[in-house]
Amino acid sequence: MIAEVSRFTNEGMVVTCDSKTYSILRGGFSRDIKIGDKIEITVVDKKNNIAILSENKVEDGRVLTLRVKEKSRVGFFLDTFGADDLFMPFAETTGKVKPGDRVVVKVMRDRKDRLFGSMRISDHVSNSHNYVENDEVIATIYSVRQGLGVFGVVDEDIDARLDANEMTRGYEVGDKEKFRVKYVLPDGKISLTKRERSHLQIDKDSVIIMDGLMKTGRLSIGDKSSPEEIFEVTGLSKQAFKRACGRLLKQGLIEVGPVEVRRVED
User: Fold this and answer.
1) pLDDT in tens, 17-67
2) What PROSITE patterns does UniProt report for this protein, alphabetically (predicted)?
3) What's 206's DSSP letter?
4) Which residue spans within 127-168 are E strands per DSSP?
5) How many angstroms separate the Cα of 73 from the Cα of each of 88, 109, 117, 210, 256?
6) Distance set, CA 255 to CA 92, 236, 264 (Å)
7) Rounded to 10 degrees, what is the CA torsion of 94, 98, 101, 105?
8) pLDDT tens for residues 87-108?
9) CB of 238 within 8 A of CB of 230?
């Protein structure tokens, strides 16, 4: 049902629906939510008028971002913000996990039909879809690996990856972001990009380079610079940098050397 955000409290926030008020506990909603916003909720405790965002409802097949509440002898319990805690066995974790961490899990059922959470997202997706190159998708980031990039899940059932050289900012586990499909691998996994198609992106990349040159007259990167050096100075991949420089060269606006780019004076 749809409710309106009425106020925030030390415990979370209060929402109103059909003249009734419900509490959503702290941690169960985004900081972007404001008073007056309309949100979809699910009541999980009628006696105490506790609700959660419907997008956080614990159901088989869902991918949820939850906080690790406590550790037990055989796994962890995840806070579902009002509903019963969700159990995550040690065998379904990845990396080091401790209480207080934010994790992305896929909800599934065990042999006894009990719900549990798994951080091993890539082991529990079908990668069956009809997406093609240049389609827009929304991915939930479930892993950030230095030097490799970020790994996400699309539509709760498709594994996706944004390579490190495609990253334009830092990402955190649980982030939801819109991406473009760069290409689809034979096994159905999706390679992501934040960049627009080349003919749309190249002008923006050229502006980035020219903005830098207008400030200093030169950039300390060139044809022989490493991808890491180019990204640090411009935020562009080496391929995008070379495409944009090629266009600016043809326009007679810059000169490119092995380790620097200079603006051609009028």
Assistant:
1) 988 999 887 766 766 789 999 999 988 888 888 888 887 788 899 998 888
2) TRAM (PS50926)
3) H
4) 136-145, 149-154, 158-163
5) 11, 20, 16, 58, 61
6) 54, 18, 7
7) 40
8) 999 999 999 999 989 899 999 9
9) yes
Please check whether residue 248 is in contact with residue 254, taking contact to mean a CB–CB distance below 8 angstroms: yes
Q: Is 0.70 surpassed by the pTM of this model? A: no
Q: What number of helices (H) and strands (E) belong to the chain?
A: 3, 18
Task: Report pLDDT digits (tens) over 166-220.
Answer: 887 788 888 888 899 988 998 999 999 887 665 455 577 888 888 888 888 889 9
- 248 φ/ψ sector (left φ>0, alpha ψ -120 to 50, else beta): alpha
Q: How far apart are CA 239 and CA 225, in angstroms?
A: 12
- Here the tokens at position 12 are 């979370």
Q: What is the side-by-side strand order in the sheet with 102-109?
A: 86-89, 75-79, 63-71, 102-109, 115-118
